[in-house]
Specification:
The structure holds two protein chains of two kinds. Chain A has strands spanning about 5, 10-15, 20-25, 30-40, 45-50, 55-60, 60-65, 70-75, 85-95, 105, 110-115. By secondary structure, chain A is mainly β. Chain B is mainly beta. The chains are: A mainly beta, B mainly beta. At the A-B interface, strand 4, strand 5 and strand 9 of A face strand 5, strand 9 and strand 10 of B.
Chain lengths: ~120, ~110
Amino acid sequence: KQEVTQIPAALSVPEGENLVLNCSFTDSAIYNLQWFRQDPGKGLTSLLLIQSSQREQTSGRLNASLDKSSGRSTLYIAASQPGDSATYLCAVRPNSGGSNYKLTFGKGTLLTVNP
Amino acid sequence: DAMVIQNPRYQVTQFGKPVTLSCSQTLNHNVMYWYQQKSSQAPKLLFHYYDKDFNNEADTPDNFQSRRPNTSFCFLDIRSPGLGDAAMYLCATSRLAHEQYFGPGTRLTVT
């Protein structure tokens, strides 16, 4: 059974700092990995999707990497801003036929960026 | 803009009174999902539709049902809500096994 762990559970940084959020998964047979952002009381916003054949994806100040063999992904946020404050979740999709549509989520990292 | 829409955003129902949450999408995606998310927890998949093919998760209570009358719409029916069903309900869509897009969620309160 796939398990996804995100460390740390919470992170507080001053504005302008570069930071890294970590995600690890137990089963390396994944189809893709997706990073989401969730603001309090809101839905999930997709940030980046990395296919299993890719090593990284970039969007603006965000860079996500994937090391499938070691079961790890990182989300790098450059020059953090107070507006980046949110919960960040990673989720993996299995590479296994009939259950290919199910995402397994981590519990998220609550990020606070202080002005 | 193409998007996933959920109505209502907030729903209050009484213990045991049936409630229906709705989701619509303009993305023309063939897969639609319903998740339950409780406070400080990861979203939990309840079921998903691949086109009209319904796929229930093994641990989804029988109290939860779903309907997908067409590609654009999907409904979550809770037949007899209990206090433990109070949660955020999230609808998502994807084209096959590609990127999932989520709606804003419906916050359900059970009194």
